[in-house]
Write a structure and sequence with these properties.
Two copies of one chain form a homodimer. By secondary structure, chain A is mainly α. Chain A folds into two domains: 99 residues; 401 residues, Orthogonal Bundle (Neurolysin, domain 3). Chain A is built from 21 helices and three strands. In chain A, helix 3 packs across helix 4. Chains A and B meet through helix 1, helix 2, strand 1 and strand 3 of A and helix 1, helix 2, strand 1 and strand 3 of B.
């Protein structure tokens, strides 16, 4: 048996080799989404395929398996330092999951989602769900098979949920949505019945491309990103990515007739980027870099976008930046008007354009459709009708076509079933985190009003960001809040905020 | 012994693995030069180092050596197809050169040039050559040692020259420069003695960032780049890079008070990009992708920049684009005025700002300094005085400080000795290529005037571009022109053009 010291050293070296591949794959994908010309896709696909295969081989090879065995024994004997033990936990889980899928099955899966994605791109504008439906059925069948390999005893959709957010299941997500539904559906109904929305013409004011890019950088710095370790790019759909603690990226999309769209995209993505930028530097080049789960990641973006960025207190520094870059449009806008403009709640069909209040209802629709597909209660052919009925039920709207209905999201074409709930969970975590930091004495509103988030960020860095992947969501929430996840904070926050905004 | 078919298949697979590393290293470097934040350098360095090491191992490992042996035998037996034989030639040479330097020596070299580069960046603004000089001496000593390993029988500087441009030597470069000197020095002196330069105030007209970016894309398309396979980025010092035939990049720098600077940077870099974009698609993922030598690459950029872009005929379509994007500044400019503005010849101190006529004189200065260092006739301590005397001799100027003198270029800090001559050779190849295409019936001026370079590009694609690395410079020149390289075309071209421009 290898000596622990030699195993530890080999383990760190192996993680570095994996890191090199993860890093380069992220850069290639980022380049593909921001700069690369259309025809570059073939070469990028070739390189990404080769790197992914090397990654899989390194992660699952017999050397890597022997290392996990040797280090697990050392950990059980208590001779492993804390960080290496964290690394081992995460690495061993990654390895177990990668080993569960045979190489040829993984290759078939890659071809399937690649094809599905191309079909989805083609039919989304025409709304032709029938052409896409066979892929949905095949993807669900493949994922159920995969779930059975990963955990034969569990419900397949529970296995999917757990892949994106450790520890959750349909039981917990059902309970969560049931509580959210009870708060949000009546609120939305009340707002719709009032039928009044504020008139705020400055929302359509024009902002030049260059001025909006400058504003984006202002915002990133204001939120606390260290700008010598962060860059801004442009893309079709805003996203962010962390390559390393010293290199995080935000990609936005500029619409010259919608300045606030870019403002909130950038604040949202900067929240993700803050998380990645503040992972413990000691985790560099290990499997602990990056965020721990989709839900925790989304909690950081939603916290910045909504709890900070759409708070009444933050309107003061935000207005100052807007007035500096767009004096004609914003010089005479008041903070109250901006607050209303940033918080219009109104049922709509497209999730990506949904407001803070109606957003979780969009997630519930997708969650219930996914549940039905995995339970065998529906096939892809039933989805448009199901979508229609759930949209009527939660949003009170009719779906005129599949383009703005069940074809609107890219996730299913990429095989991402079980992912959507993390978007709603993220907002709920965020509300609980803010409540906890207030309890801990953080002057949240004062920090927002001053445009200096240092106290907020210090709390998040200590309790969330620095841990990278070392702790799972549940452990982070308990550590940060002193209690388990509780959706009550989120429901109370939404009820109070939107009751006041709409005088309900 | 392995069967040829199995060896060929393994050889293609090995090239693919090398290609993946080359491609990702290029993307990482491109990202570093265009988007990455400052602090991203550490992670990028880690990844680049790991990839370069893997590349070296793949290229020089015993498997790779055995393949070269097996395939060489197959080639000698006449059982190798033409393309694989090309690949073998290039691969075997790359392997031989990589094997000549032991791994630990290569690592020491990387550290040395890394340190030298940091020192150069620090002292360039202050002009402190003394702080940089020890690195120059160490780099020259290391390169002489490396040259001795590569070819113990040859003069070390000849070995360096050959690395950048196969087949050249001091004998041929001396002859080339002697002919250029005889034509250009008297021309420059005559222009300087006249002392008159045209007054063209539109040259300083302001062009907004966005309009200049749009103009850059107009120009790339006009020159014949397929824009679904080309992208434009921004950087500090303009450059271009080919990642694959379907993915070439141009990076420019926008100065809002100097539109023509960007125009000629983009045309120059588009010339490089056209070469990369038009390599035979059958060479994809092999060692034959990319350009064959620095000199041939530069011939394509200089051909587009000077022979096309600064020709009288091209002023018509260029003016049309300029007037479309900058109507206020360019609506009343004539094609003759633009031609004068694009062709002002005047001795200056900085190579990167030099005009077409005086440019080769800057190269001669560097070449003679490098020769003296490699011959042991000078050490780094002598370089400032040598630079001064050569600048006086060729350009008739005094060097006020080392910032605009011997510290101006980045090449030496990166260990690139023997590289400079390829810049001048490129212009001379370009002149010979244009003469040859005219002889072949290409209506060069008409194509430029029409803003439709298709006939020019068809000639270049067939004779230069498509061959990638399959043929060396000398073979390409002979194939394209029917004769060996002859600097007379270049000298006659410069003499005729600038005599007419300055009525000499």
């Amino acid at each position: 048996m290898t000596q622990p010291a030699a195993s530890v050293s080999a383990f760190k070296q192996l993680q570095r080799s994996l890191w090199t591949r993860d890093y380069t794959m992220k850069i290639l994908s980022f380049d593909g989404a921001t700069v690369a010309p259309e025809r570059g896709a073939a070469a990028r696909g070739e390189a990404l395929g080769a790197l992914a295969e090397e990654r899989h081989r390194l992660l699952t090879g017999s050397d890597a398996q022997d290392l996990v065995t040797a280090l697990s024994a050392a950990r059980d004997a208590g001779t492993l330092d804390e960080q290496t033990a964290f690394e081992l936990n995460v690495f061993a889980r990654d390895q177990r999951e990668a080993l569960a899928v045979p190489a040829e099955e993984e290759a078939a899966w890659t071809r399937l989602v690649c094809e599905a994605d191309a079909v989805w791109h083609r039919v989304k504008p025409t709304g032709d769900w029938e052409a896409f439906a066979p892929y949905v059925d095949r993807i669900v069948a493949t994922l159920k098979q995969r779930a059975a390999r990963l955990n034969p005893a569990a419900d397949p959709y529970d296995v999917m949920l757990d892949l994106y957010e450790r520890g959750i299941s349909q039981a917990s997500v059902d309970a969560f949505f049931s509580e959210v539904r009870a708060s949000v559906v009546p609120l939305v109904r009340a707002i719709t019945e009032r039928g009044e929305q504020p008139s705020l013409p400055f929302r359509a004011a024009r902002g030049s491309h260059d001025a909006q890019m400058a504003l984006s950088r202002d915002l990133m710095a204001l939120l606390g990103l260290e700008m010598d370790g962060a860059a801004l790019s442009e893309t079709e759909h805003p996203f962010s990515e962390g390559f390393a603690a010293g290199d995080v990226r935000v990609a936005t999309h500029i619409y010259e007739d919608d300045v606030l769209s870019n403002v909130y995209s950038v604040i949202h993505e900067a929240g993700h980027a803050l998380y990645e930028q503040n992972v413990d530097p000691a985790y560099a080049y290990t499997c602990l870099e990056g965020g721990t789960s989709m839900g925790i990641h989304e909690s950081q973006s939603r916290l910045m976008e909504n709890m900070v960025g759409r708070s009444r207190a933050f309107m003061e520094p935000l207005l100052e930046l807007l007035a500096k870059r767009f004096p004609e449009a914003y010089a005479n806008v008041t903070a109250d008007e901006l607050y209303r403009a940033a918080n219009i709640a109104q049922p709509s069909l497209v999730r990506l354009e949904a407001d803070e209040l109606t957003y979780p209802l969009h997630i519930m629709i997708r969650y219930e459709v996914e549940q039905a597909l995995f339970a065998g209660e529906a096939t892809a052919a039933d989805v448009p009708a199901l979508w229609q009925s759930l949209t009527r039920k939660y949003l009170g709207l009719e779906v005129p076509n599949n383009t703005v209905g069940c074809l609107q999201d890219t996730h299913w074409s990429g095989g991402d079933f079980g992912y959507f709930p993390t978007y709603a969970l993220g907002s709920a975590y965020a509300a609980q985190f803010v409540a906890a930091m207030r309890t801990d004495g953080v002057a949240f509103d004062a920090a927002c009003a001053a445009g200096n988030l240092a106290p907020i960020n210090a709390w998040l860095r200590e309790r969330i960001w620095r841990w990278g992947r070392a702790k799972d969501a549940d452990e982070l929430v308990r550590g940060a809040c002193g209690t388990a996840f509780d959706p009550g904070f989120y429901c109370r926050y939404l009820t109070e905020k939107f009751s006041a905004l709409y005088s309900l």
